Amino acid sequence: MLNLKFAIGRSTSCESFLLQDVTGNFSTTNPGGYGTLNEDASEVQKSRLLVYATDNTTVLYTIETYDSASDPTYTSSFETTITNAMIGVTEGNIPAQIVKMTYIIEKTTGENQFSYSKDEYVFLSCSSVCCMDEMFAEAVNCSCQDKGKLQDALYLQGLITAVNTALSPSCNKIEQAYTLLNEINKICAGSGCTNCD
Questions:
Q1: Closest listed residue to residue 100, CA positions, set 81, 70, 72, 123
Q2: How confident is the model over 97-131, as pLDDT tens digits?
Q3: What is the DSSP string of 8-38?
Q4: pTM for this structure?
Q5: Are the C-beta atoms of 44 and 107 separated by less than 8 Å?
């Protein structure tokens, strides 16, 4: 059976993020991949991304990410850009937050129709990474005797890594991720970062 997987990648500008199908192709080490015993990626006719409100049950945005009627053939390495405007952010960057998302692929016409979906909690980290980068840049400009700014930047870097680890399927500690995110937001709010909102 197909084991749909997706990832969200960060853009350098913080004005968008990348949705990537990371299911991969079928192999002995990836039995849930596309092809062979499972549906082939080229059979996908539509895909969409659901973005939930903070209650994790109300769908705020449904983003149509692929339609075979107008797009080239879907592949196992499909990716598309999701702009900030598509999720309601019309000015500035997406604030650092954890968002529940569901990725859906479907074949809705013809023989052997199918629908697969995958839920993930995703850390939209661009603004916090921007804040961390500014803190590192400021630490470089400080005197060698002031190690506090460097320590703060390293701590923030550790927290960002910890959120991503807590949200990983192998860890799945969602509540802990939210606690870490609150600490990240406190640090960034008090850091004086000016180019990350």
A1: 123
A2: 999 999 999 999 999 999 999 999 999 998 899 88
A3: EEE-SSSSEEEEEE---B-BTTBTTSBSTTS
A4: 0.87
A5: yes
130 and 164 part of one domain: yes
CA distance linking residue 34 with residue 23, whole number of Å: 7
Structural domain including 33 reads 6-124
Q: Is residue 58 within 8 Å of residue 52, measured between CB atoms?
A: yes
Report which of residues 79 and 91 the model is more confident about: 79
Find the helix or strand (DSSP H, E) in which 7 lies. Answer: strand 6-10
Query: Which residue type sits at 37?
Result: L
115 inside domain: yes
Q: Is residue 15 part of a domain?
A: yes
Q: How many CB atoms lie within 10 A of CB 197?
A: 13
36 plus 58 within the same structural domain? yes
Question: Is residue 197 in a domain?
Answer: no
Q: Which pair of tokens denotes residue 185?
A: 């937001």
Reported in sequence order, the residue ranges of 11-113 that DSSP labels E, i.e. its strands, are 16-21, 46-52, 59-67, 79-83, 97-107
54/70 same-domain check? yes
Whether pLDDT at 142 is above 70: no
Give backbone dihedrals phi and psi of 108, rounded to 5 degrees, phi first: -110, -5
Burial class from Cβ neighbours inside 10 Å (0-12, 13-18, 19+) for residue 69 reads: exposed
Same domain, 103 and 19: yes
Residue at 1 is within a domain: no
